[in-house]
């Protein structure tokens, strides 16, 4: 699907998720040097890569990108609970973990029929 057919909200979502993925990569590097948790990093790197692939698929308006986003997002959050890093603020406010998928759904589902 060409860029002129992609809704503006989907484009903005992809840009925001891309920025979050870059920040996540920086967080992995920071975590590796400050408190190496090889189990957490070993899970996070493939999940971040899967998230980046899902962002590309969303950019191309592919339904499998939505499924991959949810799978990688919820697996990443599950690793936060299984292997919590020190000073993790997301665990202090677990309701924040639900906000991202709700916003994602609110943006994606009105355009669901336009996805391939």
Task: Give a quick summary of the entry.
By secondary structure, this protein is an all-alpha fold.
Q: Globular, elongated, flat, extended or rod-shaped: what is the shape?
A: elongated
Number of strands: 0
Termini separation (Å)?
9 Å
Helix proportion range: over 70%
- Rg measurement, Å: 15 Å
What share of residues are in beta strands?
under 5%
Order of helices and strands: HHHH
- Given helix and strand content, the structural type is mainly alpha
**Helical stretch tally:** 4
Mean of pLDDT: 81
Count of domains: 1
Biggest beta sheet summary: none
Structural write-up:
The protein is mainly alpha-helical and 116 residues long. It has one domain. The chain is built from four helices and no strands. It is elongated, with a radius of gyration of 15 Å.
Spell out the key features of this protein.
elongated
